[in-house]
Amino acid sequence: METESEPYIRLATLRQLHQVVADLNTARSLADTLQAVADGVIAGLGFELSAVNLVRPDGDLLVAAVGGSAGAEALMAGRVGSRCSWERRLSMGERWGDLRFIPYSEGWVLDDDDVPQWHTPGPAPRFPDEWHPMDRLFAPLYAAGASGGELIGVLSVDKPRNGRHPGAWGREALQMYAFHAAVAIGNARLRGNMQRALLRLEREQQALRASEESFRQAFEYAPSGMAIAEMGGDQHGRLLRTNDALCRLLGRPASAMRRFSFSDLVHPEDIGTLLRTSAEGGRAELRLARRDGSYVWVSLRNSVVADAADGPRFLLTHVEDIEERKRHELQLAHRASHDSLTGLPNSAELRARLAARLCATPPRPGGGYEDGGASDGGVADSGGVYVDAAGHLHGFDDFEFFGTPPPVETAPFDGHVHTVPPNEDSDIDDGHKGLAVLFCDLDGFKSINDRFGHHAGDAVLIEVARRLTNGVREGDTVARLGGDEFVVLADGLGRADAADLAVRLRNAITPPIRVDGRAVRVGASFGIGWAGCGMSAEDVLHSADQRMYIEKRSRSKERRRAG
What we know:
Number of helices: 17
Number of domains: 3
CATH class of the largest domain: Alpha Beta
CATH topology of the largest domain: Beta-Lactamase
Keywords: Coiled coil
Largest sheet: 7 strands, antiparallel
Domain PAS: 211-293
Organism: Streptomyces iranensis
């Protein structure tokens, strides 16, 4: 009887399978489709339990739907199994086409992994194809339904109603169902994406209409400057529209602004900054010309007003007045690098300027430079360049050849010109010009502070700073090191020139200084040092300081006060 009715049973099962497959494509959402996949296994394939494990963007698999058991759903739904654990399962057991069957005798090793499961122990099978509670059967779901494609999920099934392993026909039916389930899930995702895109498009169109009006009002009544400029063509950069704030900032009417572009208004020194500023997201701080000929510091921020059909059309520029901030920044920078009393560069600024002229390359015996002692290291000619052993190119003021230099066209020039001190071992001035460092210490200043107070001392320091500044050339540096100590950096001097400069500055300091109706006098002691590459700024200042004390001790107190 069972054999005779088998064709009828298979036909009924086929009709059920056809119906559940059709139901997969009637679900309205991805969640409904996933639940339809799980329920279809129960209704059409003869299993009592099923679960759909969906691949997440991070690769792990989420239990997205459970069918056949409310208890199993409460236990498993929403839980996640790692990708590596699932890959381990799909590589084990017996391959039934695309299906993976793991018998209880092998699956015990999976009991403690992180994949959600509902299996319970049970007795050994009574006959070869009896289903054991710990048996596992998986149907992988591939994108577009094709085996070997991207894995989008795994369909887990359990507890066949007849209590037996599925035969050839049952396996084929499950495999075919998994194919259609994968297609249905892909279609549901596509429908969801299309619905979200249509909804987003509708919202964007509504927002666009609202934003056009908002933009017009924001542009016209913005408290800071706004401008719209043309992009492309012969009129690229020409201002098409400006708001009232920008017109007030530059003192020009809107009708006049339309004759200009920003390149016509920018300060000549800032034209390079403007040209380097990108159209999209570009930022720049530069000066723009007012109608009265003065300039104002502004911050420009660009963005492109794009047309979906024709591409970028206009450049929207936000112009912010930063004149006050720039003035404040310059004041802060000046305070950080200059003495608050005299206005001269301070100790930190002095050391920075001195260090900028020095490098760590020590001199060679005989007047040259090398890169750390290599016998065939850096070489150059008089007024030429120096190539160190690392292949870097340096400049020179005065140097002789030592050996054969590497080909200079292969060495990158780093822009550094070596600072070379004159030869002080000889009594004869060879005429070499170097960077002189004159260390000045005032004589008799402490007594003025003690007798007349710090106010008088400050007035003396201010006058001495003025006299030192007037006594040097433009481009030389006069800095206050601290207290009553000053330092002068004078480049391009020979030994005799430096000595003459020290005498002139001493003579400029010694005349009486009037403070609060009384005349006071101070003297000055100078020590002359020479900066040279291979020395640090501290080395140079220490050398000049020591020479100043030698010079101070060599003169009597009366002579120091008189200059």
